[in-house]
Automatic annotation (TrEMBL):
It comes from Blastococcus saxobsidens. It comes from the Bacteria. This is DUF805 domain-containing protein. GO terms for cellular component: plasma membrane. Keywords: Membrane, Transmembrane, Transmembrane helix. InterPro entries: DUF805. The chain crosses the membrane at residues 25-44, 72-92, 104-125. PANTHER family: INNER MEMBRANE PROTEIN YHAH-RELATED (PTHR34980:SF2), INNER MEMBRANE PROTEIN-RELATED-RELATED (PTHR34980).
């Protein structure tokens, strides 16, 4: 499988991709990788740090607005912080491929449907075949 131009030419391009990336690259190179790292970090925490899981007591109304997991350990927290930048950067470059600005990430703040709008836009709608204000289409 060929990597997009930005990922082939720049050494840190996976961590902070630029330009535009296709839907398949977003799913395979970012969503899948971040999910696998999250599962690995959670199992390491459960094995090595079983007592490190913080328990947060909050009301039912607050659950929709709380973006963090109820439990986790130091490895999960470190991995979440390390993968925050590539996750946001990949979403932005995917939005650029659809000719949307990074302001579309504010959909995350809309309870209930915001994540669904972004999931459909980023993960299910195809690339624009022509150049847009963010550059030429990815190879």
């Amino acid at each position: 499988m060929t990597l997009p131009t930005a990922q082939r030419t720049t050494p840190g391009a996976w961590f902070v991709p630029t330009g535009r990336i296709r839907r398949r690259v977003w799913w395979v190179h970012y969503v899948l990788v971040i999910a696998l790292v999250g599962v690995a970090a959670t199992s390491i925490d459960a094995t090595w740090f079983p007592d490190a899981y913080p328990r947060i007591d909050r009301g039912d109304d607050f659950d929709l607005l709380w973006p963090f997991p109820d439990s986790g350990g130091p490895v999960t927290a470190i991995m979440a912080l390390v993968l925050l930048v590539p996750n946001v950067a990949a979403m932005v470059t995917r939005l650029h491929d659809r000719d949307h600005s990074a302001w579309w990430l504010l959909w995350n703040l809309v309870p209930g449907i915001g994540w669904l709008v972004l999931l459909i836009t980023l993960g299910f709608l195809g690339s624009q075949p022509h150049p847009n204000r963010y550059g030429p289409p990815p190879p």
